[in-house]
Structures are given as structure tokens and as C-alpha cells.
Amino acid sequence: MHQEPVLTRSFRVLTGIVLITWLILPLIPLAIWSFAKGWFFPDILPKTWSLRAWEYAFSDTSGVIDSLWLTIGISLAATVLSILVGVPAGRALGMYKFRGKEAVELMILAPTIVPGIAVVLGIHSVFISMGLNNTVFGVILVHLIPTLPYMVLVMAGIFANYDPAFEAQARSLGASAFKTFWYVTLPAIMPGIIVGGLFAFLVSWSQYILTLLIGGGRVVTLPLLLFNFATSGRNDITGAIGMIYILPGIIILILTAKHLSGRSGAVGGFGQI
Amino acid sequence: MKIFLLLLPAMSIIVLLFFGGLLIGLMRSFNYMPVIGLTDPDFSAYVAVFTDREFYLSFMLTFHIAFTSTVISSILAIGAALLLRRSFAGRAIVNFLFQLNLTVPHLVGAIGMLYLFSQSGSFARLAAEWGMITKPSDFPALVFDPYAIGIILQYVWKEIPFIGVIILANMQSIGEDYESVARSLGASKWQTFRYVLLPLIFPGVLSASVMVFAFTFGAYEIPAILGANFPAALPVLAYRKYTDVDLAARPEAMAMAIVIAILSAVMIYFYVRYSRRRVRG
Amino acid sequence: MTHVSIKELTKVYPGATEPSLDRLSLEIPTGELTALLGPSGCGKTTTMKMIAGLLEPTSGDVTFDGRSVLRDKPEHRGVVMVFQNYLLFPYMSVADNVGFGLKMRKIDPAEIKRRVGEMLEMVKLPDLGDRKPSALSGGQQQRVALARALIVQPNVLLLDEPLSNLDAHLRFEMRDLIRSLQQDMGITTIFVTHDQEEAVVLADRVALILDGKMKQYDAPDAFYKRPVDEATARFFGGHNFIEGSATGTRYEGAIGTLQLPEGVPQGPGKLTFRPENLALGADPSTPNTLTATIKDKIYLGTQTRLKLSVGSQIIDIITNPNQVETATPGQTLTVTLPPEALWMLNS
After folding, report:
1. Residue pLDDT, tens place only, B86-145
2. Tell me, what's the pLDDT at B277?
3. In the predicted model, is pLDDT for residue B245 greater than 60?
4. pLDDT of residue C10
5. What are the phi and psi torsion angles at C35 (to 5°)?
6. Minimal-distance CA residue of chain A relative to C58
7. Which residues of B touch C156 (CB under 8 A)?
């Protein structure tokens, strides 16, 4: 394109700086609070700094660590189940044409758009009679509602670009059905499983209302704990938990940055986080 | 048959949990639940909801939150995408920071906004430092406020990168050649944007906006942290009704959930109409 | 009516060490149809974009009728580019696509409608104005793209591989359409292509660009008769390169002594001739006959290709299949090399 005038370029740089500042701004007070020991109006920065909030967060009594493990466990379980169930469904949608495919696609798309609150009240009133309310298993099950569709969509995209002739070639070379899957199919779809799995993990990781209702206050994941501290005015501990809570997302971003094109169905998952 | 078996587990989960949940909600909203002896469906919950002033205020507020957030985020996201599509020094870093808050849950963003914009928050302190206010209550109410400014700020914060990343990918797959054609046919930069780039990215913008609208209409924890007590956003109101000590309020909560679901169904219609069927990859 | 001249045009992309285009100079007279020919990545599309103002040159100049246009914005240059994949705006009807340039100039809608009708008539698609581009065939899309470009009456028309996406039977039809429109309107036209056949059938003059540098700028037949070097000859399908040297019109070298045409480059180099310009059998009007042994015979349907050995050299020749039906490898035969079929390449 044409050489840009200095003015245009400066405007570009300036709006870039404003944008980036705005994007990281809300995380700054959270980080400062976690190291503050009393931070009263109108101090711009805390008068005294301390690691008290972090010590508390990592102590046995606070329950933060227990909650962290619980949240990791629930999200991992939801991810693994999504992979196991989502890969076959993705294969069906990505590789075959069949009657009613549009309807199936629509049914899988619906949970990615309909908010959790619209379905969880109904689920809650059924789970009561099944004894699933207030259980970790019940929470894992409802987390599948937002995680599974993304897994299916990502895998459908992967399988749409996958040539099943490789499998036929392997079978004709004498590989069993299982060996074909293990040595041919799985390596080909692995990138999709990893990206889709990481997204499923993050989507489950960020669930609030589903856990709140189905967990009934007994299953206290990290976001519930964070919400409780935030609304009870413990800003320093909220800051520390907040920092712990966003860590997996940042790690996952670093791991997947190069796969993150908006063209992937997975990016839609960010809408749920 | 093979296709059926491949789809069976996933579809069972989605049908039983998602559509089952919807159906039960629908039945309960009509006070119809044969297993617990409710065999005469009626409209009493809907009558109660639709004659309640709080519901209307709540619905209007929620619509305002979702609509305003979506429009502002979409416009700013287009701007951000235009900015990020040009190569410049340090773009990789800017891109990374742009994507960073995609991974930060809304709840954390909401708490951050609370600490930034509350009357004793960072901006109030800066205002005090510069002598614009003397006590916290002088600072304008930007959270827990009737216009939901804090909530909208949070959504805008979170959704600019979300919509932006989708538009950016959209722009990359479109390439710059259409714009080159337009320029060589005599279109100015503005005309090129208005008549060529905008129509080309419009379906992408719309399908991302639709997801954002549905999400912001139905999210619970953000208005719960940043919103006023009255009127509360619809999901907050529904949750309150559902957990009310008076179990008779539950069908009303279900009716509100159904209202949210119907609105989402409208959004799905737009999404399917305008998205280029992402499902097929 | 624009004389385009390109002076020492150079483009080095940011971060690249080698220039994508290295000091290209070209004069394109008013109303001529010129081809920029070269393999992909040789810098020809870069050149077009710089002429159109879509890309900034690193150094050098582009002038229209002697006036530098480098500071003109693309929309003010009067240069229209037609891309290889046509790039019709998919959300607009055919008529809206064709009228796009006029709409950008804020011309009255009734006038636009009238001129779009005329233009569609000219490209022989009068009834397709209401269709969407996706409903058209490739050839029809190309005509619409051409109409969209010509309606703004550009000074210079740039075409990117105009025939390469078309089926063989459509190519000549499109070639005729482009030539007749270009000649009627007298628009200076430059097109780029990697296909020598496309360049030869369409252009008045061809500029061959190899490795970012211009090799030869000439009428199409010159590339067959008088190539400047081996790379140029090879690009146009040349096969025969034989060591030797020229003194006046006399060649002496690896296949003996031969008579050369007037004006061949002098001194040591390589003798070249096209396989299709040799004749089997002796011709009394010329002393240029050789005795050769058939090494291999390749039947190609409408032609037969023979590999012949002359001393230690192998030469390629293409003949009519009927002429060599009974020939078999090992046989000896006589070939004539008419002087006008020979050319020397300096090393």
C-alpha cells in the first residue's frame, strides 16, 4: 500500500497502545491487591506490601488448594469425557453426509449459544430425584453441556480435512482395526484433540452458574471460592485467588498460540469463558 | 448404522442433559410434572411473571446490557482487527496481549472492573489524587448503577478480543486483493472499507455478535458481581426466584429461563443464517 | 492513450535480502499490449502492483506520458488491475460489480445503469446483470471482471494471467475478446503470465523476466528465432545447444561447419535451433546437411520426436509421424538445418 503519512502511523500506534492498556488494565488492581496489606482510599498504591494473602491462599485452612485440585479434577474429567464422546461424533459429522445431518448440527450448536441458566434449572429439578445434586459427578455431567459441543465442532473440522484412504491403505497393508486407529487415525487427529481438549478444559474451568446450582454449595470450585471472597470484601485474598485462577488459561494460550486462528471452531469456545 | 453409533454417545448427552433440561424447565414453567402429581398444566407462572413490574424492568435492563455491549464490542472489535491486520514492529506481542484476556474468565474481569471503577476503586483514587473528588461518594456510580455501566464495560473488555480474533481470521482468509481491486477501480480508502471490506466481513461479525448477545443476555456471575440489586439482570432474578425459600416461586424462575431460551433460539436462527456453517469446517 | 515507462524499478520486500525485482526498465508505447512473462515468483505481479500503486517501489520510477505517478494514490492513477481469480464482489449482482467503479465516482445511477448495459453488451453477457457472480461460469466471471475494469475507461489496464484459468476452447475466444476490446478502446495494456504460449498468442511485445531481471523485450517470434541466451531459449522450449563459434555467417564446432543467417552474435558460444525447424533428407539449396544416427524415437500422436546422434552430440528433432513410420533406432539418416533456423548464443 501507499506510504502512510506520519499522522496516520502515529494514530495507529496510539490506538494500539490505548487498546493494549485497556485490555490488561482490569488485571492490574487484582495483582496489586494480592500483595497489599491494607490499601485504603485514596492511596494510589498500597502503603505496605505483604505476602499475607498468598500465605493464606496456600495454607491448609483456607481451602484454596483443595478447591484448586477439585477444579482441576472436574475440568480434567469433563475434558476426557468430551474427548471420548466428541471424537466419534466429530468423525460422523466431518466425514459423512446423512439424512438429518443439519438437525444434528443444529442440536450440537444450540448448547454453545443457549446460556446455562436456561437449562440448568430444569436439570436441577431432575437431578434431585436422581441424587446427583451436590455431587462432583453431577457437576462433571452438567459441565459436558458447554464443553462437548466444542469438542465435536473442532473434531468435525479436523475430520472434514481428513482422508480416510490412509486407513484403507493401512488395513490393506495388514493392520488390524485397532492398530489402524492407533498408528494412523490417532496421530492424524491429535492436533485437533489437543486444541479441542484444551478448550474444553478452559470452558469447564470457567463455569460458574452450573457448578453453583448443581454443586449446591457443596462442590466449591475455584470460581465459587473467588466469588465468595470478592463479595465478602476480602480484596487481598480475592486478588491472590484471581491470579491462581487465570494461570491455566495463560499457560494454555502460550501452548496453543500458533493454533489459534479464528477459523477454528474452537475459538467460539472463548465466548463461553 | 455406523454413523448412528458414532453419534449416539454425544447425542445422548446433549439430548438428555441439554434438551431434557429445557423440556423439564418448560414443563415446570407450566406447573406440569406428572411424577410429582402436577397433572394440570396452567399459565399461572407466566401470568405472575408478565404482570410483575420487576420482570419488565429486569428484562429491559438485560436487553440493554446485551444490546449495548454487543454493539460497542462489535464496532471496537472491527477497529481493533483493522489495526492488528497491518504488520508492524511488535505485532506478535500485541497479538498475544490481545488474546490474553480471551482466556481470563468473565468472573475475574468483573472483579477487576469492580476494583477499577467502584467508588473507592483505582479511578476514584486517581480522581482524588488529581483533586477532582474528595471522598469516594463524589465519584460517579459506575458499578451497581441503574445503567449497568460496569457490566457493559466488563463485557466490552472481554468481547473485543473475542469478536476481534474472529474478524481478524475472517480478514486474513479474505486477503487484501478485493480491496486492491476496489482501489484500482477508483474507490477511496473509506469507500473501500464501506463498500468492500465491511460487506465481506459482515457475516463473520454478525455470527460473533450473535454469540456475544446470547452470552451477555444469559450470564449470571457478571451482573451478580457488578449489577444493582433492583432491578437485577434476568439471570440473577431467575436464580433468586429459583432459590427462594418459597418453592412456589420456582415455576416463575423456570418461566424466566424459558424466556432466555426463546431469545437464544432467535439468536441461533441468526447465527445459522449468517455463519458460513462452521460445523463443516 | 498513455505511454507507460518503467525506469530501473526495484522492489526489496522488508526482511528480504534479494530483491524481488531488480532494476526493471520497460517502455510500453500507447495502446500496445505487452506481456510480462516469467516463472512464478519472478517479480511480475510485484511489477503490476507497483504500476497500479498497490505497492511502493524500493527505488526507480513509473511514468505515464513522462509524468511520474508514484505519488498518486491508486484510485487516482487511472490504472485498473484484473486479478487472475477475477475477485468479483460476491455479495453484489453482476450489474453492481460492473458499475462499481462508476458508483465510487458518484455518477448518477441512471447513467451507471445505461453504461453497465452497454458494457455487458460489449463483453457479450447482456442478460446476466441480475445474477450473482457465483452463478456464472469461469469464462463469464472473467468477462464481468473485464467489463468492470473497462467501464471506468482506464489509461492503463493490467491483467493477471488472463487466460490461465480457462479451458482450452475458451482461451482463444477470450484472447479475441481481449484483443478486440483493447484495440477498440486503445488502452495501453500490460498482462503478466508464466505461460509462454499465453504471452505469445495475446501480446504485441513480450518482456521475459527471469530471477527478477529482464532478459529480453521483443516481438513474440523473436524469442523463438533470436533468443538472447540459453535460459531464454530454454524458457521457450528450446532443446538444442551445441558448442561452437561463429565467424561472419560461418559456424564451426561440435557438429562440423554450417552456414548461419546474417546478424548472428559473433565469437564462441552455443549454436541453437528449434527441433521443429529441421527437415529430414538432403536439400540441395543449402550446404547445411548432417548425417545422423537415430538413438531413440518417441511417438507423440500428432508428432514424432527423434533423438539423433551427430558425432558425440545429441540433437532433438520433431517431425511428422508419417515421415518416419519405418525408422528404427540405429538407422542412419540425413537432416537439413536451414540457415534461417540457426542462431548463436554468446556464452
Report:
1. 877 777 777 888 888 889 999 999 999 999 999 989 999 999 989 899 888 899 989 999
2. 46
3. yes
4. 93
5. -105, 135
6. A3
7. none
Could you please state the CATH topology (level 3) that the domain comprising C4-224 is classified under.
Rossmann fold (3.40.50)
Q: Is the peptide bond before B231 cis (omega within 30 degrees of 0)?
A: yes
Q: How many residues does chain A have?
A: 273
Interchain pair A1, C73: CB under 8 A: no
Residues of chain C neighbouring B196 (CB-CB closer than 8 A): 89
Phi, psi of C245 (to 5 degrees): -145, 150
Residues B189 and B269 in one domain: yes
- Return the CA Rg of chain B: 23
For chain B, what is the domain count?
Answer: 2
Same domain, residue pair B28 and B120: no
pTM over 0.90: no
Please list, in sequence order, all residues whose beta carbon lies within 8 angstroms of the beta carbon of residue A91, skipping any fewer than 6 positions away: A155, A159, B6
CB contact under 8 A, C73 and A2: yes
Per-position b or e across A78-102, b if 16+ CB within 10 A of its CB? bbebbbebbbbbbbbbbeeeeeebe
Say whether pLDDT at A258 is over 70: no
Q: What's the gap between Cα C113 and its chain centre?
A: 36
Q: Is the complex ipTM higher than 0.95?
A: no
Whether A99 has its CB under 8 Å from any CB of chain C: the answer is no
**Touching A: which chains, 3+ CB pairs < 8 A?**
B, C
Does domain A60-272 fall under CATH 1.10.3720.10? My reply is: yes
Q: Quick one: cell of A59?
A: 495454607
Distance from CA of B229 to the nearest CA of A (A): 13
Contact B165 A260 (CB under 8 A): yes
Please say if the pLDDT value at position A60 is more than 90: no
Domain with CATH 2.40.50.100 in chain C: 238-346
CATH number at residue B52: 1.10.3720.10
Size of interface A-C (CB pairs under 8 A): 8
Of B70, B99, B56, B78, which Cα lies nearest the Cα of B214? B70
Q: Does A3 touch chain C (CB under 8 A)?
A: yes
Residue A103, helix vs strand vs coil? helix
B12 and B149 in a single domain? The answer is: no
Nearest to C75 among B177, B186, B195 (CB): B186
Statement to judge: residues B94 and B225 lie in one domain: yes
Question: Among partner residues B35, B128, B281, which is closest to A160 by beta-carbon distance?
Answer: B281
What subunits touch chain B, counting only 3 or more CB pairs under 8 A?
A, C
pLDDT of A86 above 80: yes
Both B161 and B238 in one domain: the answer is yes
Q: What is the pLDDT of residues C217-232, one digit of tens each?
A: 999 999 999 999 999 9
Shared domain check, B213 and B229:
yes
Look-up: residue for cell 429491559? B60
Instruction: Output the pLDDT for position A232.
Output: 92
Which of A21-25, A221-225, B105-109 is least confident?
Answer: A21-25
For B178, the closest of C89, C148, C152 (CB atoms) is C89
Whether the CB of B271 is below 8 Å from some CB of chain A: the reply is yes
The CATH 3.40.50.300 portion of chain C extends over: 4-224
How confident is the model over C179-207, as pLDDT tens digits? 999 989 999 999 999 988 889 989 999 99
**Is-contact A209 A123, C-beta < 8 A?**
no
**Which of these CATH numbers, 2.40.50.100, 3.90.850.10, 3.40.50.450, 3.40.50.300, describes C238-346?**
2.40.50.100
Determine whether the interchain pair A145/B167 forms a contact, defined as Cβ–Cβ distance below 8 Å. no
The answer on B110 and B71 residing in a single domain is: yes
- Tell whether B266 is within 8 A of chain A (Cβ): no
